[in-house]
Design brief:
It is a single chain. The protein is of the alpha+beta class and 219 residues long. The protein contains 3 helices and 11 strands; from the N terminus they run H-E-E-E-E-H-E-E-E-E-E-E-E-H. It has helices spanning 9-20, 88-100, 189-201, and strands spanning 34-44, 57-64, 75-76, 79-81, 109-112, 116-117, 122-130, 144-151, 162-164, 173-178, 183-186. A hairpin with an 8-residue loop joins strand 9 (162-164) and strand 10 (173-178).
Length: 219
Amino acid sequence: MTESFVYSDALRALIAERLSRFTHLPPAEFAGLKPAAVAIAIVGLETGDSFGSPGEAAFLLTRRAPRLRAHGGQYALPGGRVDAGESAVEAALRELEEEIGIHLGPDAVLGTLDDYPTRSGYHITPVVAWVPAGTQARPNRAEVAHLYRIPLAVLRRPDSPEYFSIPESDRPLIRLPMPMLHTEINAPTAVMLFQFREVALEDRLTRVSHFDQPVFAWR
């Protein structure tokens, strides 16, 4: 059985310290791509949550509304494009509030991970943020069909990640099993959560920009 993570000041400090030592890939590698950002928002599970145990640390995962033009119905981290004059951190926090009604200030940000280049022409910055205990989410139903609190321990399952290939690419792909949702999470979300696991939870320097996406995510 995979050991769970306790939602605590000690965990917050540990993640922040590891992210502070993380050396990012040079931004020049993503020249010509449009900037976007997502939030890896860390929360504490409460009584009544569907998965895990009260007091366990988790991350927020959404299922996008099916009528959205881009990637409708897919599982994703809260996020979107970086507006003109906005930083990636500002964009991730704005999208977190717009999509699920959680307002966080810059002091909630623990750090960032490598930008991930997508087939659809974006480079996405994952921003790791700590959500205070008791914060209530209010999903925007025009954008979010479901909001899930997924225990961090799921990222450390012995069968995760799964590596595979496709005929359309010579690059490897990964996906993350999500048995509680009866599905797997694919790139780009899977790639960013995998690097979060490696850097923040395992204290390993692991790069992910070489991983490709499944064909359905190329649009």
